[in-house]
Amino acid sequence: MMPDCLKRLRGLVLAFAACNAYAIEPVKVTLEFQPDPDNGRYVFEICARCHLPEAWGDKEGNYPQLAGQHVNVLMKQLLDIRTGHRDNPTMLPFVQERTIGGYQNLVDVVAYISTLPMAPIHSQGPWPDPDSAEYRQGMRLYQAKCSGCHGASGEGVDAAHYPRLQGQHFSYMKRQALSVREGLRKVDPAMTAVLDALSDDELEKVLSYISYLPVPREDLAPSAEWRNPDFQ
Ligand code: HEC
Ligand code: HEC
Q1: Are the CB atoms for 73 and 176 separated by under 8 Å?
Q2: Within 6 Å (CB) of ligand 2, which residues are found?
Q3: What is the pLDDT of residues 127-151, one digit of tens each?
């Protein structure tokens, strides 16, 4: 029987634009795939060389926490990196069709990653105290400027590919936010506008607040010593 967590992956939809030779108008094609997480586990071996078998990322923020991220977010990022829309020279060679295969393998690896429990500990910002002025300012900024897309608790929106920010490393979020502001990472222009309007100080506070948003217990691994049994 298929576990509950995978049922929601049925009918994952991919959309991309192609060029019609006559009209030169973009053509939108929608493809549906049935994910096979068992095959995804094999595909993930190549990813685990950098992301490690738990896909938890690192405190320095060089790698993101991938575990627990929404399937449509992971898929969009993979396609963006594969097509060069998101610049990631380190990972690029490993997501080419000739290294990890076609769309079915991407769907499968994403399905596999989404079954992994999240790290119980992640890097956090400088203001843990909910009574501090900095935390409260971060909270107000988050609610006014970010929660409309990333959700009241940072849970994201799978279908709209708004990333889940709960549990993401503070250091990684900071690096991403700065690269959006420097124009290096292209994202939804509405988010770029919001980030551009924040001072460095406000950005630090809002990201610190996000890093203390609680992750539902059931999504977390039992301990920081948990190791992915598929890779033992
Ligand atoms: C050579 C190392 C390397 C390999 C192999 C690799 N990655 Fe990555 N990946 C990275 C780095 C580094 C980043 C962060 C890039 C940045 O800072 O913008 C990243 C980012 C990502 C992201 C974006 C997540 C987010 O929330 O921003 C996804 C999704 C991802 N990797 C999935 C995969 C998958 C799936 C594979 C295997 C097919 C893979 N990666 C293989 C290095 C690697
Ligand atoms: C209009 C919707 C929208 C708003 C408002 C918005 N975001 Fe985003 N955010 C997105 C989308 C969409 C992405 C994924 C971009 C992509 O596709 O590469 C994203 C990505 C991110 C990421 C990178 C996550 C990752 O896993 O790579 C961070 C960090 C982030 N947003 C923080 C914020 C903060 C902080 C605010 C408020 C100050 C904010 N966002 C406001 C839509 C939004």
Answers
A1: no
A2: 64, 76, 80, 86, 145-146, 148-150, 161-163, 165, 168, 173, 176-177, 187-188, 190-191, 194-195, 206-207
A3: 999 999 999 999 999 999 999 999 9
